[in-house]
Amino acid sequence: xxxxxxxxxxxxxxxxxxxxxxxxxxxxxxxxxxxxxxxxxxxxxxxxxxxxxxxxxxxxxxxxxxxxxxxxxxxxxxxxxxxxxxxxxxxxxxxxxxxxxxxxxxxxxxxxxxxxxxxxxxxxxxxxxxxxxxxxxxxxxxxxxxxxxxxxxxxxxxxxxxxxxxxxxxxxxxxxxxxxxxxxxxxxxxxxxxxxxxxxxxxxxxxxxxxxxxxxxxxxxxxxxxxxxxxxxxxxxxxxxxxxxxxxxxxxxxxxxxxxxxxxxxxxxxxxxxxxxxxxxxxxxxxxxxxxxxxxxxxxxxxxxxxxxxxxxxxxxxxxxxxxxxxxxxxxxxxxxxxxxxxxxxxxxxxxxxxxxxxxxxxxxxxxxxxxxxxxxxxxxxxxxxxxx
Length: 389
Known about the structure:
Spore Coat Polysaccharide Biosynthesis Protein SpsA, Chain A; seven-stranded mixed sheet; elongated
């Protein structure tokens, strides 16, 4: 029984040991700084506190929680935040117990220490050194060869045709695939239409939530639920025909790439139904900005037809932060940051007259996302989380 207790609470016991060592170091450092270095008490207290926090951070990362993440800066900032909040909680508890409730200060300190120790442990376990369960798995056997993700927002009029076309393509090619439709807070009957096809289309799945979050959020949600060896996302209007999956897959294999993206701007791309001139100009201008500031070797970051290896998609979308149209460029930025090879493939493309893209408003939003992604790059927010192996 004692052995089981120790095993269950081993991380907490380790955290307690580290806490005691940190406290001793804090006191020793404070004494040295004041008595031998001649630093005033307040700055000496600050320095000794930071020294103890650093010591506790290193020991808890490598021993208590055994975190494999190499993003030390991000983890240390989180650890420091938890520690500072713990310090504030200590002062608050002591004030309440001693000044307001009249508790003996030694008893108050013991109760406070237990409260703060528990707070620090849970904060670091559940936030600082949290093991991300959405990271890719390492198994080599997959339930499906392809996971086809279709983000949909109020698509009751177009989703039926797309589902029938995709299903016919999969059947004709005898492909083992799942179709995941993510209804992004649709207020129409998109969900009901998809539900009605579940008995007719094999491995058709529907994910729904009530509030519209954006196309990027919908794709990320679909990726998290995908079980295919390869993951592709496509538009609900089938603007890039599903048959183009053949081309992307072949190029992915032939070039030994991790990501294959459809492109409307390569020389051999085939625009079957063109956009109005003003939308073409705005689109090209936006793409020039993206190439200038983010990904200079990709001509079309925004085509909604992209294929990923399973592990690649899981890692990239785990780090994704943009929820709306700018998610495409962010995904490619993260892919390049993680060292994945990207191949751009010319595709056929049909402009839909029912497109909900608002060139000016969505263009400005994408520009905002571009700045946001650039700041994230500078801030190191796209560092691979190595807690998972």
